[in-house]
Amino acid sequence: MDFLYGLFIAPFADFGFMQRALFGSLMLSLGACPIGVFLMLRRMSLSGDAMAHAILPGAAAGFLFYGLEILPMTIGGLIAGVIVALGAGAVSRFTIQREDASMAAFYLISLAIGVLMVSIRGSSVDLMHVLFGTVLALNDEALTLIGGIVAVTLVSLAIFWRALVAECLDPLFLRSVSRMGSPVHFIFLGLVVLNLVGGFQALGTLLSVGLMMLPAAAARFWTARVEPMCVLAVLIGSASCIAGLLLSYHASLPSGPAIILSAGVVYFASILFGTRGILRARIIHHRHRTA
Amino acid sequence: MTQTCLTFRDLTLGYNSHPAIHHLDGAIRKGSLTAVVGANGSGKSTLMKGIVGVLKPMAGGIIRAPALRAAYLPQQSELDRSFPARVVDLVSLGLWPKRGMLGRYTKDDRDAVSQALMAVGLGGFEKRPIDTLSGGQLQRTLFARVLLQDADLILLDEPFNAVDAKTVGDLIALIKHWHGEERTIMVVVHDLDLVRQNFPETLLLARQPVAWGETRETLKPENLLRARRFHEAWEENAPWCEPDEHARGHDHNHHGHDHDHHHGAGPRAA
To answer: What is this structure's pTM?
Structure first.
């Protein structure tokens, strides 16, 4: 019993920084995982990655002027993300170019500007901070920010749920009954940026998208409905955060990659054992009903 | 005393400054059932998109009756069949005009969904994932959604594609039922026999309207021949359609189909 306590409870009970890390990452899961489900269902999984890169110049600008401070870097990242999301979204909505191409163009330009800005002032250690984050050093400011982002995300999802589902399921239909199509797309992109920015202090710009996409991709193997998929993604995300933090504590590994790799393990397990996964499909294929 | 549902005023719709519907004038009577026929590329789907408002006119306009509720079943649906939704989720979208984005679905709404599915012969399909439906079943599901929209104007773009004979019969019966309820219906159809048997009025398109009116009259051999001569391809260097030239073309059009009086241009069709 003591052993289990030492393994699972003690790290969080004994250390304030672990409690903060746990609290912050669980909140992140609550907001980011449902967003990830919709990103995946809209076939924009890689757009999330692109957006994560696009945030860099904004964060770098904040870093350039204020140093390694959370608020300016967050606001900078938010602005850069929104510019890229709106720009890419607008190009795809109003020209013949599809969103994947416009997103790639915008994020690459943005990434180049970001790297340039970081290299003007900082050393490569600073760059590492921005890229990979520090979940074990979340301060009150960061936790408040994450809390706010999660609240905005959940409220927006509750309000726009039906429109978002309709926009994914049958966009032309939505356009024929309502003008919500374009606004809801942009609101959704806004939520993506918001959650990536929320995640980047904890997990870094590159890995914050991992907490968004991996639980969603894993949940896809278990259910054929959106609502349970979102709930399951949140659960998988939360479990990955706990597992990742414990792993990082006991094995002295960096926490961000440990969290994302935990989600990766769940993903691979889901591919194999999910109700819609490989093994199940193989077994069921041998038997069939009469009608 | 007939009311108009839609009035087209010198309507030009198209893509990249090439018209697909060229200077269309006329009106759709409230409660009418009109078949829209014509060759590929003759502007049938474009007209539907223009009416429902997803394509903005290049010139002219469409005057809708006030507070008109339109339901639109497109030819090429942008439906994502891999989306994890059940039949009931897809059909429930038809409640949008009634409940909007935030309104709760009541028990009556859920009953209405079941009844709509029943009406298209898909009773008991509620829980089926949409990616397990056949093409014809999906088409009937979309009909159920149109049913639920409870619209005054129903636009169906080639609804009988890839649908078996029995189902076509069922869907025609449904369309006639709507017609009986005084709803205005426009259907893009390719099967002329089907049109002759079931549709009182027909609009024959070849970018311009070739003929428009009573079905038997419209589908006369000479009209069909004229429609067939229509040149499908765009001409990259086609001259710009100038106002005065358009006036001439316009008159010519009217001359072309002035036998259908009740469809005359809006102002004259009192």
So the answer is: 0.83
